[in-house]
Amino acid sequence: MHNAKTFKRSLFIFRRDLRLYDNHGLAQAIRGSQQVVACFIVDPKQVGPGNNYRSDAAIQFMVEALKDLDAQLHAQSGRLYLFYGDPADCVDTIITEASIDAVFYNRDYTPFSQKRDAALATICAARGVAVVVCNDLLLQEPEMVKTGSGTPYKTYTPFFKAARMVPVEKPHEQPDAHWYTAAITSAQKKDLYTQLVPERTTQLLVRGTHQEAEEILHSLRQFAHYATERNIPSLATTHLSAYLKFGLVSIRQAYYALIKAVGVHNPLIAQLYWRDFFTHMLFHNPKLLGHAGVERYDDLRWSYDKEQFQTWCDGMTGFPLVDAGMRELRATGFMHNRVRMVTASFLVKDLQIDWRWGERYFAHNLVDYDPAVNNGNWQWVASTGTCSQPYFRVFNPWVQQKKFDPDAEYIKRWLPELADVPAGQIHTLFKATSPIVPTYPLPMLDHAVAARNVIATFKKL
Q1: Where are the alpha helices (H) located in 185-247, listed in sequence order?
Q2: Do 49 and 73 share a domain, yes or no?
Q3: Is residue 194 part of a domain?
Q4: Does residue 395 sit in the same domain as residue 309?
Q5: What are the percentages of helix, strand and coil residues in the chain, rounded to 5?
Q6: Do 249 and 243 form a contact (C-beta atoms < 8 A)?
């Protein structure tokens, strides 16, 4: 911790922490500086067409959040400066234009983030500018949760037991700030927002505003029965994930709000730790992006059938729960967690299509896209990671939909062509010999045969 007002004018770079409340890096910048320049850098490597994992839905949500953050800063007589370009180059320019003597930001853990931050630190060192990196994104840092022999955990349950023993810091109010507001020549105009979000936008189920984030935190009491209801896709979900992804809510806020609303033993608490676990896993093993967590599974012979893949993307497989999920994703940028598992399992276990294709498609469409969590979930379903379901466990879409959507309420919401078909008929579609409605296909494969095939494929390795 720096003594009061160590720096004359510091730069705080917002990233996955688009809030003023309980923002560790921002609070340190405010406490340690006479003035703070608040900025966000739009990196073309992330938002440009060259990024194979770019999510329009996530960018749309991010732009809403940035506008809202700017409004909050204005209410404190501040402003949010927007920059476009390589972060190290932008910071180099800002240091000169605004006479910066310190740069603050919160730590991130992906290979991309670490490379970016190393370049930032190099520029700052060359310019004689201090760099202060703060811990903010996770409940616990990767270095804090290790096995008895000092190695990272490779499976979730022992990780969760160990991580819960480490106290979680309480959220803190934002200190009073003196914001810098003079013109900075290289800053972008607000029309950058319009350029970032294409005209055909997703009908997001969540809005990127501080107020909406607060409302979600206040509504958490309704999830007291999450343990029994979490797998029912027609019921409400917290929708916290996008707010955590972009940091409109701090992980500490979410943790304590959940404990207050639903109690310390509610499975929702474990969901927060899954986010930590997957982030730690990727931090310790950056090869997970692109490679199986268990090396021998890199040798699996996957299918690369583009036509079958497109059928899955379009929600036209003839498996109603799978199709409903895929259409919900395309329409809203969101998919219920149970349905994410079923749709992913169908791609990798039934169609035997490479999990990396699915990982990339979800990345393109999810409003809450988080590289570590998305990768972790896909490897879990594909049985390729160190913490995965066993390869012989194959989700049966027919059993899943009958169990978790018995009245086909969720299915009918997203497959309007089946709105007038009785639920019983929807659940036994695999017995049909001709389409039950002209616009919806028969199942594209026999699930039992596909399950036997994939188990045999895994056994060969």
Answers
A1: 191-196, 210-218, 226-229, 240-245
A2: yes
A3: no
A4: yes
A5: 50, 10, 40
A6: yes
Nearest to 450 by CA among 313, 293, 303: 303
- Examine the domain organization and report whether 43 and 94 are in the same domain: yes
Domain containing 36: what range? 1-136
Among all chains, which residue has been given the structure tokens 């029994």? 228
Higher pLDDT, 30 or 50: 30
Task: Please give the tally of structural domains in the chain.
Answer: 3
CA distance 427 to 407: 9
Written as six digits, the tokens of 422 are 């009785």
For strands 7-14 and 102-106, give the pairing: parallel
**CATH number for the domain harbouring residue 58:** 3.40.50.620
Q: Are 417 and 408 in contact (CB under 8 A)?
A: no
**Spatial strand order in the sheet of 130-134:** 80-84, 33-42, 7-14, 102-106, 130-134
Cα distance between residue 237 and residue 225, in whole Å: 11
Cα separation, 220 vs 217, whole angstroms: 6
CA distances to 31, 67, 325, 414 from 335, rounded to whole Å, are 40, 25, 6, 11
Q: What is the CA radius of gyration of the chain?
A: 23
Q: Count of alpha carbons within 13 Å of 301, Cβ hemisphere only?
A: 8
142's tokens: 């990767």
CA distance 404 to 8: 58
CA distances from 120 to 87, 111, 260 (A): 7, 14, 39
The span from the CA of 90 to the CA of 311, in Å, is 43
pTM over the 0.90 mark: yes
Residue 292: CB atoms within 10 A of its CB come to 21
Q: What percent of the chain has pLDDT over 90?
A: 79
- Final residue of a domain: which of 284, 317, 337? 284
Task: List pLDDT tens digits, range 144-173.
Answer: 999 999 999 999 999 999 999 999 999 999
Question: Quick check: is 182 in a domain?
Answer: no
Q: Which of 160, 157, 164, 162 has its CA nearest to residue 387?
A: 157
Residue 241 or 30, more confident: 30
Give the span between the Cα atoms of 18 and 45, in whole angstroms. Answer: 20
- Which residue type sits at 255? Y
- Answer for the pair 40, 188: CB distance below 8 angstroms, yes or no: no
Residue 203, in any domain of the structure: no
d(CA 66, CA 71): 9
